Here is the input.
Amino acid sequence: MRPLTRRQLLALGAVGASATAAGVAGLWLATGNGPGYTGGEDLTEPQVLASRDRVLELDLTAAPARVRVGGRDASVQAFNGSLPGPTLRVRAGDTIRVTLRNGLQAPTNLHVHGLHVSPQGNSDNPFVSIDPGGSFEYEFTLPEDHPPGTYWYHPHRHGHAADQVAAGLYGAIVVEDHDPVPVTRERVLVVSDLSLDAAGNLAEVDQMQQMMGREGEIVLVNGQLRPQLRAAPGERERWRIINACPSRYLRLALDGQRVRLLSRDLGRLPIPEDVTEVVLAPGNRVELLVETRDGSAALTAAALDRGSMNAMMGGAMMGGAMRGDNESGGVPVELLTLAVSGSAGTDPGPVPEGRPLRDLRNEPVIAARTLNFAMGMNGNMGAGMGSGQGTMMAFTINGREFDPERLDVTAAAGTVEEWTLTNSSPMDHPIHLHVWPMQIVQDGDRDVTRPKWQDVVNVPARSQVKVRVAFDDFAGRTVIHCHILDHEDQGMMATVQAR
Ligand code: C2O
Ligand code: CU
Ligand code: CU
Here is the structure.
């Protein structure tokens, strides 16, 4: 990996300028008002498959699918033909058995994002590869003390993850609460983004979009454009929101309604917190309690500055398309509308306090390490400007691109480690560790005083975050990576082993 030269910067700038034209079209489409799209239908939810007698057995086929999106016919890729795939509902201690069939033209596999299950064999093993036409029997067993929460599944085959998630392959997993929260109703809201060409096929992605992390032109909730929800005043809803976009950050707000944060990624907060906005990096989930008031409200995703390559290049590049913020150019995207009217519902009663969270700051740390996430130039600038896997940037962890054969981090099972995640690049990277969630203990220079657990932790440009990880329960090898899936596919991933 070599630092950029001035000449290379200017070459990149030229690409940026030509990409700007596409960015303008993105502005229209991102609001859902673009030519050809219509929104505003009643919200639908994917089919629910729930465990019985501690087991959930299902078939999932990943294949091309023809669906309706925003009033248009679209050729996407989906699990079992639906966008998103079915919602899986299980409890701690349950076993999920999935027969995954690959009906795609490329290799694939399945990852259960956020679940604390074994990374080995036919469990949550990111090294599995299923060829086109092939199938694989997965079995995931959740421990008896698995935290409740909202999780999700998606393909994780290195080199294809961004393409396949962007194409429509994702679905929700709910691990039910031990102590139910009284609500009027619950909703699962899977947010994704998508780019279609004029014929309704998946749009081509270019190298610049892969380097920035692609953002789809329209943002969908459960595969729908700006769906409508209805409720009566005085109700309490629980929204389980998943950011299934390959690269887009979501800064969410729902004006005019009382919103409390119940959960972030895993478990639940002991006491829900009033919020006016929440930020979800790619892969993050939140559970919100929405207490309804008369009127209509919109759930919006505001633009968020996640850095740019321009910053790295001292302004040598031009054009908004080079930036990593939403392509809507600052206009918030409306994700859904909530219409509240009618006679008041019955008060669902108080929310019982959740269990206190484990605090790893009270536990001995056995090892400390630093993982640095970096971007640099890769190979020959002049060559290979077309689309394809390799781009001109190298995406590395501690100076190395992903190698599935190499062991990068070995932790002793049963111990707690402290990791400093540093980002020497000019873009944010949302860092995700499989199997073991992370407790954030320091964010930049700021100590995080209350236990804050996440499985995707955003590390801002030229900044750092300190986390602690308890290598509980499982031995085996898995991965840590950037959840801007284009960065992961380009090498920003490392292996982690517990033994
Ligand atoms: Cu949601 Cu390793 O990913
Ligand atoms: Cu994951
Ligand atoms: Cu990244």
Notes: Residues 111, 113, 432, 434 surround copper (II) ion (ligand 2) (CB under 6 Å). Residues 6-30 form the longest helix (25 residues). The radius of gyration is 22 Å.
